[in-house]
Write the structure tokens for this entry.
Amino acid sequence: MHAAVIAATGLFTPAERVTNAELVEAFNAYVELFNTRNAGEIASGSVQALAPSSVEFIEKASGIKSRYVMNRSGVVDPEVMHPLIPERSNDELSIMAEIGVAAAKDAIARWGKDASQIDAVVCAASNMQRAYPAMAVEIQQALGIEGFGFDMNVACSSATFGIKTAADYIATGSARAVLVVNPEITSGHLNFCDRDSHFIFGDVATAVIVERADDTTGGWDILGTRLKTVFSNNIRNNFGFLNRTAPGSEGAVDKLFVQEGRKVFREVVPMVSEMIVAHAADLGIDPTALKRLWLHQANINMNDLIGRRVLGRDPTPQENVIILDEFANTSSAGSIIAFHRASDDFASGETGLICSFGAGYSAGTVFVRRR
Ligand code: CO8
């Protein structure tokens, strides 16, 4: 068995950004249009009037202040309310592969080796560009990587599941270096007309290179990885290839992200806190001595609670990194952005935790130590 390290990470950030104020302005204009256009039905009680959103609620309930998006103009247009992303021909790089490649190139540059030294590509994300060919194979081709690639989807936990898969390939000798890419165009499956969730997500791509420890002196030792899934209906996206086969589905609108946010909050916090503490104990790590947590970035109050339960005290902003204020929930990429942004100050031997959680439910823990 071979030990694995996280050798490098990379980040692609979209050029366009939407603040809460801009998003709420568009949402409230949409609500006005809807209520005006449906005034008769609303008066007769057959349609329910929509209520406005508010910046104050969003910031207090979630901690989110802005998000990056692949297309801003559609998202802030009350007559559109979704991103506008032109379809590409089969001969062009798909948009999800394109942002995955951008993040991968950033990681490869930091790694300082050539892409040809990568043996496998795992594209791990919440939503895939298409059924096939796999995005991972497209990314592999764009980067000139030999070997193999495949896509995997574990919603917000895709990155940690991908890192574990990569570390297992390293351990068994199936690969010496694996590229894990997390392109997340969450705006494509977010219902910008839904007051409960229109503010939640943002777009981004991250990349992680996992390498055999013997092949490098740098990076982060992967001390242990653990995965967990427990079925829940509280976060769902029912979009799928069988949708059009359901009798009576003709003309139905796309099925988008839905959740019972409060239930998710209540159920996932204990599940994840207990998982972290148990995994740390099995590895002989004192969780209260961790220098830093790079948690999934869905909700600031959730991260505060998990941080308190794991560290046994109120975590400082340095101990519990928050990037969701700027990026919103970027699904699988969130904990990787936090790690990418806030890990340079670690001294050799210092230990931290990358942890994701989300739909499924799913959760993944990756304990790392600076080499
Ligand atoms: N503006 C003003 N008021 C609002 C708004 C709004 N936008 N939305 C709701 N309210 C009101 C409600 O109507 C309610 O009013 P009342 O008390 O009168 O009934 C009140 O505010 C409170 O509403 P909630 O109970 O819904 O509010 P919460 O405090 O629970 O906050 C959150 C809502 C922020 C959603 C919170 O519950 C949360 O963050 N929960 C955790 C969710 C989470 O972690 N989800 C993980 C999902 S990610 C994942 O795994 C899937 C990945 C797939 C990515 C695909 C991309 C699309």
Q: What stands out?
A: Residues 53-54, 57-58, 61-62, 126-127, 155-156, 186, 189-190, 195-196, 201, 235, 237, 257, 259, 261-262, 264-265, 298-299, 302, 329, 331, 358-359 surround octanoyl-coenzyme A (CB under 6 Å).
